[in-house]
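Q: Structure tokens for this one, please.
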Amino acid sequence: MRKMLSKILPNAEKTVPEGMENHSKPISTPKRKRVVPLWKRPQTIAMLSLVAISMIGAVGTWAWRTGLIEDTYLKAKWSAIKISTDMGFTVQEVLVTGRGETARDDLMAALGIQRGAPILSYEFNDARRRVEDLPWVLQAQVERLLPDTVVVRLTERRPMALWQHRGTFSLIDDNGVVITQTELARYGNLIQVVGEDAPDHVGGLLELLETQPELHSMVRAAVRVGGRRWDLSLASGVNVRLPEDDAPEALARLAAFEMESGVLARDIRVLDLRVPDRVIVRRNVMPQRRPKRKDGQQT
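A: Here is the predicted structure, written as tokens:
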């Protein structure tokens, strides 16, 4: 066969130039690029992630709308409460501090809890809001003391004045909040305030009077005039008219005037302090005596 090929192709083995027979190298074949599977490509992973998130969101929305999540949560919650009840986590005591005027029955009704109730299922925030709605309660804290105690801490309102409005008296605190309209006899020593907007300004009035303690002890009532200023009624019957502006300075002027002259012990009807740097005094006017009627005289 070789002889036949030699005869047919006599120069076939001499395709390599002379001198290069032992130095020739095979021609290299270019490497093929590595083919990455479609499911491993970053674009595919990102797309699948978005689809998965969308599906989870859709399933979550469906579960929420159908009540599946809520039902599951409630079942788990009440199962845990039952277990805690079996372990003794039930209300056995209610400890209260700070209660002075708040009635016990009213407080227990607002708490809305009974002995033996599961302590872990008790809604403390709702109870706190109900307790703070009681007339005497300014602030309340309701907490659990495991395993079986509910602790209630009360801060009650301080009665500061009696508000007279449209023929009715109400007990109010220094913020003007109405506490009660019953059993007011024991608060007769408090200052009485008159006027529709008097409760809104009673705190400022009390602060003003505290700057002059000696005068404060003489004040029995205060009338709000025109929604702008106060008239003070003293125990001696003297009416003190305070200005709209600079009332503290006017009251200090009256205190100094009283110390110098003892004017409040005199037969005075009105002390007008509305004019700066001046005290206007108005005395009581004695009524004129009528002439005695003679016998037989007709009128």
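A few notes: The two ends are 178 Å apart (CA to CA). The chain is about 35% helix and 20% strand.
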